[in-house]
């Protein structure tokens, strides 16, 4: 009788990718920067000379103290004195980079029209300004709630959407953050790091939920906004999962090259990138490059050997599955054998699959080869249900009914104990055939 199923040899190619997220975190909010802004706009007693726009430079210190540096540009120098007086009587919110307040320049734009003054900055007293102050104070929950209501009342306001996206990102609401950033249009340079983090983590979540189409789109957006190790690695993984292997090689190589020259990238992120790149090389037929990058990964961290072996085995499993789908069962068996050699921890199930593939060989089952691989599966793990199933099925095909029943009965018990109902059903079908005399 012929084997009726292939066992769970580990996973298909996509399933054995390392968990995403470790590399993505390195492109996060630690570099997020918000510039200084107006806390309260001052006043001036100096008469205005007419309409005009004056740009004043102010140096704002981390403690909120400041020094007006002077006028940068002016369309009506008669208004300069009033502009400087307003700047000197104003108060300011310092710039923030990551968790720290930092010294920075604030370019204060003042427009004089019809005897009135309009600031080009966002004052604390305005509704949107209050929510920005909450962002500065790390009250992201409060800022998010207020900004959601503000956006509903003021649809299409890109500044409000930008602030909401920042709040969403710091609260790890990455899907919402990405959606808000999508509405911003051109993302200001000082917001690109936090935007890239939102898109990267959104891509990670989508890809881990097997939504490769939207995951790839989010990863592409991240790489467009902030090219770097994390964005290139994430886009490369998305391309790998989308079976666009040549593009995956390009992006993963970019990430790999960046990692070599950036000591701040963690070892676990570099190893993950190496394993991804190794897979991309394998699926583009670059076996030598794959072996070299595998050596790089284990050189960074010896404990990465298991991930490297599993990824290498996965490549052979995918080839075996493709061969089996084309009814090339002897070729499939050979690939499963290579997978078993590549990953000793998966040897039992891969040798078992090799045995089952030989059992289905066309035009004649290769029972002796099947028996040899079934024996290897048992040698790897005598209590593996798949290995016992392969051994029992092969013995049945060789006419050794009594011995076959022994292994099949054990396999059935092990499969049930493991909760593998599909395997147990297949085993019991064969047992039924044996006891029925077939």
Keywords:
438 residues, alpha+beta, 4-stranded antiparallel beta sheet, 3-stranded antiparallel beta sheet, 18 helices, elongated
Q: Helices and strands, in N-to-C order?
A: EEEEHEEEEEHHHHHHHHHHHHHHHHH
**DSSP strand content:** 5-15%
Shape: elongated
Radius of gyration: 32 Å
Summarize the structure.
With 438 residues, the protein is α+β, with helices and mostly antiparallel strands. It has a domain at 42-122. The protein contains 18 helices and nine strands.
Would you mind describing this structure in some detail?
By secondary structure, the chain is of the alpha+beta class. The protein has a domain at 42-122. It is 58% helix and 11% strand. Strands 4-3-8-9 form a four-stranded antiparallel β-sheet, with helices on one face. A three-stranded antiparallel β-sheet has the order 1-6-7, with no helix packed on it. The termini are close together.
Topology, please?
Elements: E1 33-34, E2 37-40, E3 52-60, E4 66-74, H1 80-88, E5 91-93, E6 95-97, E7 100-102, E8 104-113, E9 116-119, H2 127-136, H3 140-153, H4 158-170, H5 174-182, H6 192-208, H7 212-225, H8 229-241, H9 245-261, H10 267-283, H11 287-300, H12 305-325, H13 329-342, H14 347-359, H15 367-380, H16 385-397, H17 401-417, H18 421-435
Antiparallel strand pairs: 1-6, 2-5, 3-4, 3-8, 6-7, 8-9
């Amino acid at each position: 009788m012929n084997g009726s199923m292939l066992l769970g040899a580990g996973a298909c190619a996509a399933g054995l990718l390392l968990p995403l997220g470790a590399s993505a975190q390195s492109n996060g909010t630690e570099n997020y920067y918000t510039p200084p802004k107006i806390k309260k706009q001052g006043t001036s007693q100096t008469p205005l000379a007419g309409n005009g726009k004056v740009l004043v430079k102010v140096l704002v210190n981390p403690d909120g103290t400041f020094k007006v540096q002077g006028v940068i540009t002016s369309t009506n120098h008669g208004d300069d004195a009033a502009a400087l007086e307003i700047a000197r009587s104003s108060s300011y919110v310092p710039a923030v980079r990551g968790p720290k307040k930092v010294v920075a320049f604030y370019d204060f734009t003042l427009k004089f029209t019809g005897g009135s003054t309009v600031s080009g900055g966002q004052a604390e007293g305005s509704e949107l300004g209050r929510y920005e102050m909450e962002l500065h104070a790390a009250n992201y929950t409060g800022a998010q709630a207020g900004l959601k209501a503000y956006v509903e009342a003021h649809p299409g306001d890109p500044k409000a959407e930008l602030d909401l996206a920042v709040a969403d990102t710091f609260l790890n609401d990455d899907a919402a953050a990405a959606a808000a950033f999508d509405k911003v249009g051109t993302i200001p340079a000082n917001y690109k790091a936090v935007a890239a983090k939102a898109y990267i983590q959104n891509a990670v979540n989508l890809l881990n939920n097997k939504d490769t189409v939207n995951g790839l789109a989010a990863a592409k957006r991240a790489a467009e906004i902030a090219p770097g190790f994390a964005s290139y690695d994430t886009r490369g993984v998305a391309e790998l999962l989308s079976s666009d292997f040549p593009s995956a090689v390009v992006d993963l190589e970019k990430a790999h090259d960046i990692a070599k020259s950036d000591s701040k990238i963690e070892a676990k992120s570099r190893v993950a990138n190496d394993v991804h790149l190794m897979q991309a090389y394998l699926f583009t037929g670059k076996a030598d490059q794959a072996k070299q990058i595998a050596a790089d990964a284990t050189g960074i961290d010896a404990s990465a050997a298991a991930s490297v072996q599993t990824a290498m085995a996965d490549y052979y499993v995918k080839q075996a599955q493709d061969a089996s789908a084309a009814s090339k069962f002897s070729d499939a068996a050979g690939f499963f054998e290579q997978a078993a050699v590549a990953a000793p921890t998966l040897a039992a199930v891969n040798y078992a699959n090799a045995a089952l593939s030989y059992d289905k060989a066309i035009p004649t089952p290769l029972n002796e080869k099947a028996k040899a691989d079934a024996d290897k599966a048992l040698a790897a793990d005598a209590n593996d249900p798949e290995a016992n199933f392969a051994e029992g099925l092969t013995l049945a095909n060789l006419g050794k009914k009594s011995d076959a029943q022994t292994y099949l009965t054990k396999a059935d018990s092990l499969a049930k104990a493991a909760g593998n109902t599909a395997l147990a059903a297949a085993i019991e079908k064969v047992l039924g055939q044996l006891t029925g005399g077939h």
